Amino acid sequence: MKAKLVVNIGLVICVAISFLLAAPVLAANPKLAASITAFGGSGSVEIDGAVAKFIEKELGVKVRFDSLSHGVIHARVKAEAPRFSVDTCWNVGYPLMLEAKEKGWSVAYDSPNWRGSGDVFVDPDGYWWNNGSWSFVLVGNKDLIAKAGYTLPNSWKDLLDAKWQDKIIMPSPLTSGTAYMMLYSFMTLYGFNEAKGEEAGWEYLEALNKNIHHYTRGGNTPSDLVGRGEFMLGISSDEMVVPRVKQGYPLLWAAPKEGIGFGSAGAIIFKGTKKLYTCQKIIDLFGTTKFCKFWSGLAGYVTKDPKAVSALYGKIPKYIPNIDQGWAAANRSRLSNEWVKRIGRVPSK
User: Fold this and answer.
1) Are residues 52 and 174 in the same domain?
2) Of the chain's two ends, which shows fewer C-beta atoms within 10 Å, N or C?
3) How far are the Cα atoms of 30, 81, 219, 230, 242 from residue 295, in angstroms, in the given order?
4) What is the mean pLDDT of the chain?
5) What confidence tier does 346 reach under pLDDT thresholds 50, 70, 90?
6) Are 67 and 141 found together in one domain?
């Protein structure tokens, strides 16, 4: 009887130990949530919807998202802090990624799929992940340009020609991250790179303003309006060029000879989310070659993965030298206020 009792006690102890050992494993591997909420920063339901479908296909997680421009998302996040209405976001601008880290709005995570990607694509402390560099390009309507007997300009300075008056549209930096990228890129190109300071950058923007028909709220809108033939030229985000060309729009595009500006469009996890593990798995997914190929093929983004070739540029495009995203982020409020004083036009819907 004693022997049996000892054996039974031993079995109980073994079972108890096995449960104790298993408990941390279960805690470290929680189940994925059925759904999450997110901001998609492309401002295009087509682009952000494609990302949501990719996540659902790969992870089985449904995504309820709002597709908004960078500037609108940044304003929303500021207004909501410290209690956010979404769990995560993707394709948002560098200024938001930076501020979210500085003010404790985002959660750090060491994703194994982003290690060694370099500080252009991942924050060294793990607070943001750059889905892909994006830019702005010059777009033109093939039919309207041919009818007028013109050719698509090959220099940003060509846009100052009086023949383009009221034929160009571009987004407003008050509402669009793309437009703010244009602002600091032209400031760098014609101001700092020519050792003339900010004033020379403003001189270019003020001269360009004379030929702008109106400013749009979103960075992708010029591609749509030019593609539909409502305007001859546009300065637009590069995101919708590939989709619109595939859809048969008579859309021309060019990266003028001086180069193009660039920005980082990345993801963060918002502090306070109750679905942290699921958000972390989405960040892991964003770091895979499969996602990078999907992302570079969808709209031509330049990703961290050299195996993912941009569908728009092919190779890495020529960028305007010396662009400093840190300086641009730190000076956004000041430069936007100065834009209001000098340009002062309200963006159209």
Assistant:
1) no
2) N
3) 28, 29, 18, 29, 12
4) 90
5) confident
6) no
pTM of the model: 0.80
Same domain, 145 and 187: yes
CATH number for the domain harbouring residue 229: 3.40.190.10
Evaluate whether residue 282 is within a structural domain: yes
DSSP sequence for 256-281 = -TT-B-EEEEEEEEBTT-S-HHHHHH
Residues 121 and 180 in one domain: no
Nearest to 129 by CA among 119, 137, 139: 119
Question: Quick one: three-class SS letters along 29-77?
Answer: CCCCCCEEEEEECCCCHHHHHHHHHHHHHHHCCEEEEEECCHHHHHHHH
The answer to whether residue 100 is domain-embedded is yes
Confirm if 26 and 46 have CB atoms less than 8 A apart: no
Q: Centre a 10 Å sphere on the Cβ of residue 313 and count the other Cβ atoms it contains.
A: 18
Is residue 314 one of the residues assigned to a domain? Answer: no
Nearest to 217 by CA among 323, 64, 67: 67
Number of residues assigned to the chain: 349
- For the segment 243-255, what is each residue's pLDDT rounded down to a tens digit? 999 999 999 999 9
What percent of the chain is predicted at pLDDT more than 90?
Answer: 81
Is 230 in a helix, a strand, or coil? coil
User: What confidence tier does 29 reach under pLDDT thresholds 50, 70, 90?
Assistant: low
In whole angstroms, give the CA distance from residue 91 to residue 89: 7
Q: What are phi and psi of 69, to 5 degrees?
A: -75, 165
For 220-233, the pLDDT digits (tens) are 999 999 999 999 99
Q: Looking at the domain assignment, is residue 28 inside a domain? A: no
Which residue range(s) make up the domain with 113?
36-133+263-299
168 in the same domain as 206:
yes
221-256 burial code (b ≥16 CB/10 A, e <16): bbbbbbbeeebbbbbbbbbbbbbbbeeebbbbbebb
Instruction: Report the number of distinct structural domains present in the chain.
Output: 2
pLDDT digit string (tens) for 125-184?
999 999 998 899 999 999 999 999 999 999 999 999 999 999 999 999 998 889 999 999
